[in-house]
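Sample pair:
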Amino acid sequence: MNPVFSILIGGILPFGAVFVELFFILTSIWLQQFYYIFGFLFIAFLILIVTCAQITIVPCYFQLCSEDYLWWWMLYLTSGSSTVYLFLYAAFYFFTKLEITKPVSGLLYFGYMLIASYAFFVLTGTIGFYACFWFTRLIYSSVKID
């Protein structure tokens, strides 16, 4: 499979796990509304962790079966690519929900969303990397050397 294609497709599921909560979070930050569903946010975070782990373990297994042992960065980017969809959704939210007309305010919005997207990239990429690291340690610890 093409690495760019698999990286971009791999980011759809983790983004889908937090898509609904992202709307409420952006509304509470940019439209001065209160966010009070922290229990549901915690459940969505747990679903995000499980989704990132699963979406990177499967390609890691396929890469190891094809004897491609350079899985480190590709799988970090696979789970971290949900950031692309997060930033695209932030741009969609800007043009549909917010009524910002000043260029400086728009620049401030996109700057903050770029920082939030980068933090989300590091979070999801790290979750995917550690899941694959744990998976490879687990499967290679059971190999018997004769």
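The mean pLDDT is 91.
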